[in-house]
Design goal:
The complex is a heterodimer of chains A (375) and B (397).
Chain A: E1 6-11, E2 32-33, E3 37-38, H1 39-49, E4 54-58, H2 64-70, E5 84-88, E6 92-93, E7 96-97, H3 103-109, H4 111-116, E8 121-126, E9 129-130, H5 135-145, E10 149-154, E11 166-170, E12 176-181, E13 190-199, H6 200-212, H7 218-229, E14 234-238, E15 244-245, H8 249-260, H9 262-268, E16 285-287, E17 292-294, E18 296-298, E19 303-304, E20 307-309, E21 312-313, E22 318-319, E23 324-326, E24 329-330, E25 335-336, E26 341-343, E27 345-347, E28 352-353, E29 358-360, E30 367-369
Parallel strand pairs in A: 1-4, 1-8, 4-5, 10-14, 16-19, 17-20, 18-21, 19-22, 20-23, 21-24, 22-25, 23-26, 24-27, 25-28, 26-29, 27-30
Antiparallel strand pairs in A: 2-3, 6-7, 8-13, 9-15, 10-13, 11-12, 11-13
Helix pairs in contact in A: 3-6
Chain B: E1 6-11, E2 32-33, E3 37-38, H1 41-49, E4 54-58, H2 64-70, E5 84-88, E6 92-93, E7 96-97, H3 103-108, H4 111-115, E8 121-126, E9 129-131, H5 135-144, E10 149-155, E11 165-169, E12 175-180, E13 189-198, H6 199-210, H7 219-229, E14 234-238, E15 243-245, H8 249-258, E16 285-287, E17 292-294, E18 296-298, E19 303-304, E20 307-309, E21 312-313, E22 318-319, E23 324-326, E24 329-330, E25 335-336, E26 341-343, E27 345-347, E28 352-353, E29 358-359, E30 367-369, E31 374-375, E32 380-381, E33 386-387
Parallel strand pairs in B: 1-4, 1-8, 4-5, 10-14, 16-19, 17-20, 18-21, 19-22, 20-23, 21-24, 22-25, 23-26, 24-27, 25-28, 26-29, 27-30, 28-31, 29-32, 30-33
Antiparallel strand pairs in B: 2-3, 6-7, 8-13, 9-15, 10-13, 11-12
Helix pairs in contact in B: 6-7
The chains are: A alpha/beta (375), B alpha/beta (397).
């Protein structure tokens, strides 16, 4: 099977309340990260770098910012004639009220797109995971296993959460024999990255059967039951490189701080597997006379005249003279005026901290300033 | 085919030989500028911001870099179904081909291209200058004044006037005389090399000019003087604002230092007049603990471990520990290794300054390290020296 026979589907509709203010007006997929990217850029770029030519993005609520970001898919070279990027917003029909109770409903609503696509295989993903994955390797492993479906997982301890997530029980042959969903205490160390590869015909069949039984969630109601009780042959595929799940303010903060480290950045953004994003034509960043900066990443368009340490500055951020910024994530076009002091803060886009303002959060629970807020 | 009111023709074939080794393997309009642009981004962005959506770019000298840079024109929103940017190299016609022998000849050889759009007016541009200009305002002026040709001018200091093509104008800005580098200038309005012609008039004068084998086929030397002689209606259009010729090593360096002034003499933050360019799409730049950056421009993809002041770093530049970069311009992907000193210098793309090497000196003439050149560990490049390296342009990334 060739990579051109694989289509990618990204479901962006779940678990966005955990990021509090950051997802009040946008999906997790659209949350800005690492100075100039959005969460979804990593997934879409992974598809493109793996030669997957067709990517569908199922949108749920608040999809404006995501649509605006992805556009025609030009930045990912996904604006071809037959394949390319397909934005799939919810729509009203007799059987679809515009809001999907679960992933199964979302896929069902988009069955026409799935059927019409010429690919034979489907790679299903949710949008909380950040990695720069080579799916070609997963496809090879799936082929070799001869299984019906293949699920990607990570054994990395930092991927294990106690409250939610999907955990896989895997036997000696590498086959999945159990699937735990949101356990209080997971029994397995294999955290699912919720990346599933299967034949399109099988997926369509599972969707039809699931929906006709009144099910809503593909993981919980279909895969879990089928693997436990109906003999669905599911192979596991271990992803060994670093990956990150953005499912809380803390994990969001931690990920951004990790990206400052050169070794992490070089791995996540390697030259042969670039991460693409929507472009914005900005001047280079500008440092003035009083700039003193260390251990930080800074995007184009910033103007800095202050002390900044261990922080992430997105495009177009302004930091005035005498200000102090430490352990902060400051999103696009935010302004920190003169002599303000910020520590352990996340400023959403276009936030504004007035001169002399002081915001010191505890390292374990960063302060979040919502988009367009003035403090 | 649908008509276009005005199309632009951009002369990008010049070598820019006064830029020395910097233009040995690329045309002047492809020279990097301002951290993430190339010179040609300015006229192209001006076109798109002015609503001029057909741009013919005439290339000739070392066109490879320029051609791949322009590509489909999408960075400037010039990838259109009808219109957009077209690269126009000279080509073989009938039994023989010919190079562009002058600025007017380049346009003359592309008459068939221009005719496809049946424009009323043609805007002639050069790819040598850094400026922001609303060509549409100039076009409206040209139409309103019923001019046959309109020439953009800017006032230069009187003492500099002898270095320029000076337009002598009436109180109504009608040009009655053109003085090429006058010893005793009567006016201080210098031509910027930006012209708008009525297409029917321009075609007539280009055709006439082509009949004269002795002609230089040049706008400044032939076409404009011929139109003046025939008493065509020639208007001057006053331009105010930043305009910089970057034709020499020093002026290219100086144009970068201008960007470090506060406020910048040319506002590149203006969201209503963005300068577009092909974006390298790199990660935000990184400043390490212990590094210092002051009074400089730093672009995405840079890694700074050393000390950088009053300088412009293009995308992907690395300044390693203990290295010092001062009053300099460091172009894309160049590396300044540990302990190297770079002062008052232009370091071209992909160059490597070896550990402990010295390039230029404070207060000295501008030193230049050429494209992909490697300055050996502990080596020294004197002020004013242009260092090509052993590999020359053969070894490129």
């Amino acid at each position: 099977m060739a990579m051109k026979d694989v289509m990618g589907i990204i479901y962006t509709g779940e678990r966005d309340s955990f990021l509090r203010e950051l997802t009040a007006l946008r999906a997790v997929a659209a949350v800005p990260v690492a100075g100039r990217y959005r969460v979804i850029d990593f997934l879409v770029s992974s598809f493109v770098n793996s030669d997957i030519p067709n990517v569908g993005v199922i949108m749920q609520k608040n999809y404006h910012s995501l649509m605006d970001h992805l556009g025609s898919g030009k930045e990912w070279d996904l604006h071809g004639k037959s394949d390319g990027l397909f934005i799939l917003p919810p729509f009203l029909t007799a059987e679809n009220n515009g809001q999907y109770p679960g992933s199964l409903d979302a896929l069902h609503a988009n069955l026409n797109y799935i059927r019409r696509s010429r690919q034979e295989y489907v790679l299903l993903c949710n949008s909380l995971i950040i990695f720069n994955a080579d799916f070609r390797d997963m496809v090879k492993s799936y082929e070799k296993s001869g299984a019906d479906v293949c699920m990607m997982y990570s054994k990395r301890p930092d991927m294990q959460r106690s409250e939610y997530g999907v955990y896989l029980g895997i036997d000696e042959q590498g086959m999945i024999n159990d699937l735990e969903i949101d356990p209080t205490k997971p029994r397995y160390e294999n955290t699912s990255l919720e990346v599933t590869l299967l034949k399109k015909d099988l997926l369509i069949n599972l969707i039809d059967r699931g929906v006709s039984r009144g099910y809503h969630d593909l993981m919980r109601h279909v895969f879990q039951r089928m693997i436990r009780d109906a003999g669905l042959r599911a192979a596991g595929y271990e992803y060994k490189k670093p990956c990150y799940r953005i499912d809380s303010i803390q994990s969001y903060f931690r990920f951004n701080m990790e990206v400052i480290k050169p070794e992490i950045r070089n791995d996540l953004f390697s030259d042969d597997r670039p991460v693409y994003t929507k472009l914005r034509d900005e001047m280079p960043a500008r440092y003035l006379e009083h700039a003193s900066i260390s251990d930080s990443i800074v995007a184009d368009g910033c103007i800095v005249d202050a002390r900044v340490s261990r922080s992430v500055l997105f495009r177009g951020v302004r930091i005035g003279k005498g200000a102090r910024v430490k352990n902060c994530i400051i999103m696009q076009d935010s302004v920190v005026e003169e002599d303000a002091e910020l520590e352990n803060c996340i400023l959403d886009k276009q936030a504004h901290v007035r001169a002399g303002g002081k915001l010191i959060g505890p390292p374990s629970y960063p302060i979040v300033i919502s988009k367009n807020m003035t403090i | 085919m649908k008509k276009k009111r005005c199309i632009a023709m951009l002369l990008a074939g010049g070598q820019g030989s006064r830029l020395g080794i910097l233009t040995e393997d690329m045309a002047k309009p492809a020279i990097p500028y301002g951290g993430k642009y190339r010179i040609i981004d300015f006229p192209l962005s001006n076109c798109t911001n002015s609503g001029i959506d057909v741009v013919g770019v005439m290339t000739q000298y070392q066109p490879l870099e320029l051609n791949s840079y322009i590509g489909s024109g999408s960075p400037w929103d010039l990838d259109l179904s009808y219109g957009g940017v077209y690269v126009l190299p000279p080509y073989v016609k009938g039994k023989h081909g010919e190079w562009y022998s002058g600025t007017a000849n380049a346009i003359y050889q592309n008459v068939a291209f221009i005719r496809q759009f049946s424009p009323d007016h043609v805007l002639i541009l050069a790819g040598d200058h850094i400026y922001k200009m609303d060509y549409n305002a100039m076009l409206n002026y040209h139409i309103e004044k019923e001019a046959d040709a309109t020439i953009a001018v800017r006032e230069v200091p009187w003492e500099d006037a002898p270095r320029f093509g000076i337009m002598n104008t009436t109180a109504e800005n009608v040009i009655f005389e053109f003085d090429e580098k006058p010893a005793k200038p009567k006016n201080n309005k210098a031509s910027m090399g930006v012209y708008i012609f009525r297409w029917d008039k321009l075609l007539h004068y280009l055709t006439e000019d082509a009949k004269h084998p002795d002609s230089s086929n040049d706008f400044g030397k032939n076409i404009i003087p011929n139109m003046m002689a025939d008493k065509q209606r020639m208007m001057a259009y006053d331009f105010e604002g930043y305009w910089k010729d970057v034709g020499t090593v020093y002026s290219l360096w100086e144009a970068h230092m201008d960007l470090l002034q506060m406020p910048m003499p040319i506002d590149l933050y203006d969201k209503n007049w963005r300068i577009y360019g092909r974006n390298p799409g790199e990660t935000p730049h990184y400043v390490a603990p212990g590094a210092t950056v002051k009074n400089c421009l730093v672009t995405e993809g840079c890694e700074v471990y050393g000390s950088v002041s009053h300088s412009v770093l293009f995308s992907g530049v690395t300044v390693m520990e203990g290295a010092v970069v001062e009053d300099s311009v460091v172009m894309p992907n160049a590396v300044v290794q540990c302990g190297a000193m770079v002062r008052r210098a232009i370091v071209a793309e992909d160059a490597v300054i070896g550990a402990g090497a010295t390039v230029g000196e404070t207060g000295g003439e501008i030193a230049v390290v050429g494209h992909a050149a490697t300055v050996a560990k502990g080596g020294k490049i004197e002020p004013g020296q242009q260092f090509r390296g052993d590999a020359g342009s053969a070894e490129r990334k």
